[in-house]
């Protein structure tokens, strides 16, 4: 049975922290909802990124939901955040009102992100091998893929806010069924100009039998179109 969310738990994608959700979070709070914006282990500026595993990110989401004793949660994952959201959903499904994949990977069972796209795999593997802590940075020339509709100045500012991603998060997979088995409503929201996903968003949504709800903007539309993203999350 569908429940009205009382709390939105927003999980950011690779290289980003809870800060990326602040414009949307402000709008959701104004609509009367509690909002928790999460930064995964290794993605705060002062964090160590060595030796982290995908399970660390999953466990972090679970701890935040259980530790705050949250119920009727809308659990939202952006981009790579679809991985920890999927893993955590199986642990806290009785506390969820809905699950939303937003410009997100819908993990295939046993398939890590690095195996979703051959070109991405070459880039990620080379970065991991070259890094002393096994992390993956973003290069400035890669930012237009994330923000295709923004000015050079906006892209440079966004780039300055990004943090290297723990490599283990890209190398490891989940061994869980699809979230559709949990009895919790699921939605997929897709930016019409998203160019950054490892596979087309329509294909990822189809993995769990969904047709995406289309919205304006690119991969980072929570920053560039926060009104529309917030409104869509409230309605999805």
Polypeptide structure, described:
The structure is a single chain. It is built from ten helices and eight strands. It has about 240 residues and is of the alpha/beta class. The protein has one domain (about 5-235): Rossmann fold (3-Layer(aba) Sandwich), CATH 3.40.50. The strands form two sheets. The protein has a six-stranded parallel sheet, with helices on both faces. Strands 5-6 form a two-stranded antiparallel sheet. Helix 1 (about 20-30) crosses helix 10.
Brief sketch in words of this structure:
This protein is α/β, with parallel strands linked by helices. The protein has one domain: Alpha/Beta hydrolase fold, catalytic domain (Rossmann fold, 3-Layer(aba) Sandwich), CATH 3.40.50.1820. The chain has helices at residues 22-30, 54-67, 82-92, 118-130, 143-146, 152-161, 168-171, 201-206, 221-224, 226-235, and strands spanning 7-11, 34-38, 73-79, 96-104, 135-136, 165-166, 186-191, 213-215.
Could you tell me the number of beta strands? 8
Reading off the top of the CATH hierarchy, the class is best stated as Alpha Beta
Note the total helix count.
10
CATH 4th-level superfamily: Alpha/Beta hydrolase fold, catalytic domain
* Domain tally: 1
Q: How far apart, in Å, are the first and last alpha carbons? A: 15 Å
Key terms for this structure?
single chain, 236 residues, alpha/beta, Rossmann fold, six-stranded parallel beta sheet
Question: Helix and strand layout, with pairings?
Answer:
Elements: E1 7-11, H1 22-30, E2 34-38, H2 54-67, E3 73-79, H3 82-92, E4 96-104, H4 118-130, E5 135-136, H5 143-146, H6 152-161, E6 165-166, H7 168-171, E7 186-191, H8 201-206, E8 213-215, H9 221-224, H10 226-235
Parallel strand pairs: 1-2, 1-3, 3-4, 4-7, 7-8
Antiparallel strand pairs: 5-6
């Amino acid at each position: 049975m569908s429940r009205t969310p009382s709390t939105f738990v927003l999980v950011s994608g690779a290289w980003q922290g809870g800060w990326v959700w602040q414009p949307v979070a402000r709008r959701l709070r104004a609509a009367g909802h509690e909002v928790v914006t999460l930064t995964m282990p290794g993605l705060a500026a002062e964090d160590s990124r060595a030796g982290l595993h995908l399970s660390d990110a999953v466990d972090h989401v679970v701890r935040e939901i259980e530790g705050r004793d949250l119920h009727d949660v809308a659990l939202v994952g952006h981009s790579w955040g679809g991985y920890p959201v999927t893993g955590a959903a199986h642990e806290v499904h009785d506390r969820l009102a809905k699950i939303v994949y937003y410009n997100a990977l819908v993990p295939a069972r046993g398939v890590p992100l690095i195996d979703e796209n051959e070109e991405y795999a070459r880039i990620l593997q080379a970065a991991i091998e070259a890094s002393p802590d096994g992390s993956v940075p973003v290069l400035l020339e890669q930012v237009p893929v994330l923000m295709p509709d923004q000015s050079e100045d906006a892209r440079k500012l966004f780039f300055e806010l990004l943090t290297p991603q723990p490599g283990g998060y890209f190398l490891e997979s989940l061994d869980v069924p699809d979230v559709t088995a949990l009895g919790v409503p699921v939605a997929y929201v897709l930016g019409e100009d998203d160019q950054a996903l490892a596979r087309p968003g329509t294909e990822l949504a189809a993995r769990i039998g969904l047709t995406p709800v289309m919205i304006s903007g690119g991969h980072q539309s929570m920053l560039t179109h926060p009104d529309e993203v917030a409104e869509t999350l409230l309605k999805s």
